[in-house]
Amino acid sequence: MKPTLLVLAAGMGSRYGGLKQMDGLGPNGETIIDYSIYDAVEAGFGKVVYIVREFFKDQIEQVVKEKYSNVKCVDGEPLEFQFVTQELTKIPAGFTLNPEREKPWGTAHAVLMGAEVINEPFAVINGDDYYGKESFKVLGDWLRAHEGKTGEFCLVGFELDNTLSESGAVSRGIGSADSEGYLTTVVEHHKIAKAEDGKIYGENSVTGETVELEGKTLCSMNMWGFTPDYFQKSAALFEGFLTKNINELKAEFYIPYAIDSMIKDGSGKTQLLSTPSKWFGVTFKEDRPGVVAKFQELADQGVYPTPLYK
Q1: Exposure string over 79-90, b if 16+ CB within 10 A, otherwise e
Q2: In the chain, what are the helix, strand and coil shares in percent, each to the nearest 5?
Q3: Domain segments of the chain: what residues?
Q4: What is the pLDDT of residue 16?
Q5: Span 69-73, mean pLDDT?
Q6: How many DSSP H helices and E strands does the chain contain?
Q7: In this structure, are residues 193 and 170 in contact, taking their beta carbons and an 8 Å threshold?
Q8: Rounded to an integer, what distance in angstroms lies between the CA atom of residue 37 and that of residue 71?
Q9: Predicted confidence band at 60 (pLDDT cuts at 50, 70, 90)?
Q10: Do 74 and 133 contact (CB within 8 A), yes or no?
Q11: Which of 124, 158, 222, 277 has the fewest Cβ atoms within 10 angstroms?
Q12: Any idea which fold 4-155+221-254+277-300 has?
């Protein structure tokens, strides 16, 4: 079984100043997604599903088809691609969209868009985060081991300390795990940054409370692994979410919210996996030079061929 990689690439890049998923950051103009797909193929993935917005779907589809036309999976078969759009209007029947709402419905809503094209265990990643080779190997192995199972998910966690930006506050899913390595809770936190006293603080998205966070905590960078029954469970939760929030202009249906709800009602359990890989990414335009330098360093070390695709 070859798992599928679902790439969240519908973000508008408002803080970055453009479409991060299309920005060439590698030595030969490679995007972060290019590196993620390269690592995923090496880890045995067989299909990539892009979640995009309608207005740039054709553009990104054309670029992808040209760039990856010669890419083969580990078994020699061509790498498969699908493109699915996330739009505000894609909500269940019976709900009426508030005409004043402009903000997307969030990451868990974006993942739901893949339900029509994914029937196998799959991974979810952000299009603007670099996760590293070992992270994809860890995730690919877990997904293959859980083929045919239900209600079992995983999260590849990264130390919070290493995921902060010097250019501004960030959002992360903050969780805790039991002695067996399964999440007992996970909650999206906003405005996470290091204060003048050296401590890390963030705003709990559920309570609105500002809390201190431990730097060595394994946090979510949206690198998840799901069995396909996740779609059905998440869709039911989304309807409940909309019942409460359909008229809210900024409420978002986050993956941590969906997972935390499944943990609480017993419909799904999520294993917290660790990785030796180091994360980096672009949230703000000021992050760009550092990411460009890191990809150049990886190329100089021979970790990746240059150019990445020929």
Answers
A1: beebbbbbeeee
A2: 30, 25, 40
A3: 4-155+221-254+277-300
A4: 39
A5: 91
A6: 7, 13
A7: yes
A8: 10
A9: confident
A10: no
A11: 277
A12: Spore Coat Polysaccharide Biosynthesis Protein SpsA; Chain A (3.90.550)
Alpha helices in the chain (DSSP H): 32-42, 54-67, 107-112, 133-145, 230-245, 255-265, 288-300
Q: Name the residue with tokens 């505000």.
A: 88
Find all residues with CB under 8 Å of 96, minimum gap 6, and list them: 246
Query: Looking at residues 119-145, what average pLDDT do you find?
Result: 96
Assign 3-class secondary structure to 229-284: CHHHHHHHHHHHHHHHHCCCCCCCCCHHHHHHHHHHHCCCEEEEEECCCCCEECCC
Is the model's pTM score more than 0.85? yes
C-alpha–C-alpha distance, residues 169 and 130, integer Å: 18
The model's confidence at residue 21, banded by pLDDT at 50, 70 and 90, is low
For residue 269, give every residue at least 6 positions away whose Cβ sits within 8 Å of its Cβ, in sequence order, or none. 151, 152, 153, 182, 183, 262, 263
* Whether pLDDT at 43 is above 90: yes
pLDDT of residue 19: 59
Please, what is the average pLDDT of the chain?
92
- The helix/strand/coil state of 60 is helix
